[in-house]
Amino acid sequence: MMLNTYLQGLAVGLSLIIAIGAQNAFVLKQGLKKQHVFWVCFACALSDSLLILMGVSGFSAVLQHYPQIIQFAQWGGALFLFWYGLQHALQALKAESTMQLSANSESRLMQILLMCMALTWLNPHVYLDTVILLGSISTQFTDKALFAAGAVSASWLFFFTLGYGARVLIPVFENPKAWQFLDGIIAAIMWAIAISLVFDF
């Protein structure tokens, strides 16, 4: 029974996190660039773990009583994602985009982590899915801590697999057009999420 609870938490966690979104696209691109991959994966997994624990511990009730928190994330997230998508759209239009990164193009760790945090904490879908939905599902289990442990494990497994597994695709992205295509796809994803944030609430 204990193993079953853990595995169900793992399965639910993976099902919620595996969809392509702003956070996952960011981790994928950093993995392809080989820029601060460990810290990006660590920050994403740690953020998810905190959100999961908030949901399981009952913070979902707070969000339901104070929807202003999600509304703030809704509008702030929409503006941020539109801007972030625009940056990728501009990069996709540059013919010289390549995977060859010079030392001068290496992004600073703090900038990368701040971007990572914004993509995570300014996305209201994170609160709705991870905190409220997962928190609600956890009430079905006697041992909520074990369910949470499974969901947390899913986050760490997924992000580190995505971040370091992206290296398999590096030969493909030695072609500048592949890199431009990825930037275009990321821009489309960011804008689609931004639009959904404005019209879904």
Shape: globular
Q: Name the average pLDDT.
A: 81
Largest sheet: none
Distance, first to last CA: 39 Å
Query: Hey, roughly how much beta strand do the residues contain?
Result: under 5%
Q: What does the model show?
A:
- This protein is mainly alpha-helical and 201 residues long.
- The protein has helices at 2-17, 22-33, 37-56, 59-65, 68-92, 109-121, 124-138, 144-165, 176-199.
- Helix 1 runs antiparallel to helix 7 (124-138) and helix 3 runs parallel beside helix 6.
Short descriptors:
mainly alpha
Ordered list of secondary-structure elements with their pairings:
Blueprint: H1 2-17, H2 22-33, H3 37-56, H4 59-65, H5 68-92, H6 109-121, H7 124-138, H8 144-165, H9 176-199
